[in-house]
Structures are given as C-alpha cells and as structure tokens.
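Hi all, long-time lurker, first post. I run a small reading group and we've been trying to get comfortable going from sequence to structure in the token notation. Rather than ask abstract questions, I figured I'd post a concrete chain and ask someone more experienced to write out its structure so we can walk through it together at our next meeting. Sequence below, copied exactly:
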Amino acid sequence: MHNRSMKIFLAGLFVIAVVLPSINLAMSGQLMPNYFVGLLGKYICYALLAVSLDLVWGYCGILSLGHGAFFALGGYAMGMHLMREIGPRGVYGNPILPDFMVFLNWDKLPWFWLGFDHFWFAALMCLIVPGLLALIFGYFAFRSRVNGVYMSIITQAMTYALLLAFFRNEMGFGGNNGLTDFKDVLGFDLQSHTTRTALLILSAIALAAGLLISSAITNSKLGRVLVAVRDGEMRTRFLGYRVEHYKLFVFTVSAMMAGVAGALYTPQVGIINPGEFSTANSIEIVIWVALGGRGTLVGAAMGAILISLAKTLLTGWLPELWIFALGLIFILVTIFMPEGVLGKIKSSKGGLERLRNIFSDRSLS
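-- Answer (accepted) --
Happy to help. Here is the structure in token form:
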C-alpha cells in the first residue's frame, strides 16, 4: 500500500506540476494565470517541508517544533543570492550593497555575504547551513538524551531565538523587512511566466526526490532501526544500537530537505523575512503532517497541500476566522483520525479486505 500510494501521488504530481504547466506555457498562459503557477509552486515547497518533518517525527518519534527555522535558513541563503543579483538596479543604485544596507549606512558588505554572488555557492549554503545547524544542535541534544516534549520545547526555543536575531538590523539580513525586491535568477526574469513554470517544475522534482530519498531511508535497515527507536528507545539501546547516531543522521537529512524547500520557496514568493521563523509556522507544519498521516510521507505532502489550499481560500473569504479553523481541524483530526487521512484510508481498506476474506471463507464452507 505504501509503494502504491507513492506511485499514485508521484503520477498526480507529474501531471499537475509538470504536464499542465508545460501545456499552459505553450498556450501562453491561457490555461492557468501567472499567479496560480506561483501559488502551486509554494504549495509544493510546503509539501517538501512536511515530508522532511514526517521523516523525523513519523519514523523516529522526534517532534521538532523548529523545522520552520531550517526552512527559513534555506530561504535566506537563496534570498541573499537574489539580492546580490540585483546589483545597480536597486533603489539606491549601489552595485555591491543591497538597498537596506545603503539605507542603514553600511560602508561595506559583511563577510558572511561574500560568495553569494555565485549561484552554486548559494545552492550549497541552502544545504550546508540548515544541515550544520541541525548537526550541531542535534549532537548536543541527542547526546544529552533529550526526548519527548523537552525536545519539542528546545527546538521551539531555537526557532524563537533565531526569530529575535534576524529581526535585528545589526544582523545584516534586512531586519523586520527581510529580503525582497528580487529581479531575476541566473539571468531569467522572476516575473515571467517561463521562469515561474520552471521554478514550479523544479519544486516538483525536489518534492519527488525528497519522497524517494525518504522512502529509501525508511524502507532500509536504517528505517527499521528508526521505527524501533520511535517505539522503544531504551530497548533499542539495550540491543546495542547507538541511538543518538541514528537520530542525528535523520535529523540532519531532514533539515537539509527543509532548507531546499525554503530555497525554492523564496524566488516564487518574492520575499523572505523573520516571520518564517515564527513558532506558529513550525506548529502549522506539525498540523500538516498530523492531518495527512504521520509516518506515511505521501500523507504529509497531501496534508500540506490541502491545508495550504484551504488557508488561501479561507483567508480570502473569512480572514479573521482562519486561525480558528486551523485549530478546529487539528482538534478534529486528533480526536477522530489520529492516524491522519491517509492512515484512515489504509485502515478502511484493510477492514474491507478482512470483511471480504470472512465472507469468502463462509461461502466456501
């Protein structure tokens, strides 16, 4: 069932995010408006982010409330490159310094901005920075055997600390306004229909790759050990496994996947600011996974897309009630579908299959 649902989802993803946008591009945007292509790309980035959390929460039992931080760091790394790409086309016409630095009277580019004028360097940083943070943070947390709700709290504290840091103008990341006013990427206009379609297709490829990598991990011997850690960490330790090593590996891989999602999100949305570090965002990621089905991968991606779509519709119709609707969804899913939508479908199919077997046995007798 797991492989079947993966194949169905990937086939649907190929049609929705590759075939239809390509046809739309050939029809000069008559099938889908330009804004909808960007919106769909944003949803797919969220789906990849949800898969990254499901990898650590669904299969290893690590409820991280800090995955929004890894997503934001990947977004900032790409945003820094896009800011350098603007060059003298900014408001102040400075070929080196971004507009916000000129406004704040910075006299030179900070050392940590060096290299971001190269796309390949920025792409590497989208992986390395979130991965390195997860590696260092996870090393000390797992070595100290921090588990359960305590792990959730300290990941949330890490995210909140980064939120406060990036809000400061002195940090050199645009302060409250963040990074915006992007012009192009690799010489292609970010507002053009062709570029938006290409970014959508790249996001779909990244989501497919994330699902396949996660599936390869969870279906391997490593994945079975991760499930053992989730269901009985102390027993797994007594069997001789170095649990902290397994946790650290999957936590780092998950953070890098979240960073890739953030890197693809930034050029499609056109802005990255400290609001992406908010704890509410990280909690919303948990709701995506819970709705779709923890420990299903595909369900997590579906949950992210469905809730993001509902959020877009409800914030347009009833903007003041959206947050209450999100809370209600989480409560109802927790009470009536603790295994999530995909988990419910699987259990329902299993029940139908058992009924068929019972009736077939009776007919034979």
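A couple of things your group might point at:
The longest strand covers residues 179-180.
The chain has a mean pLDDT of 88.
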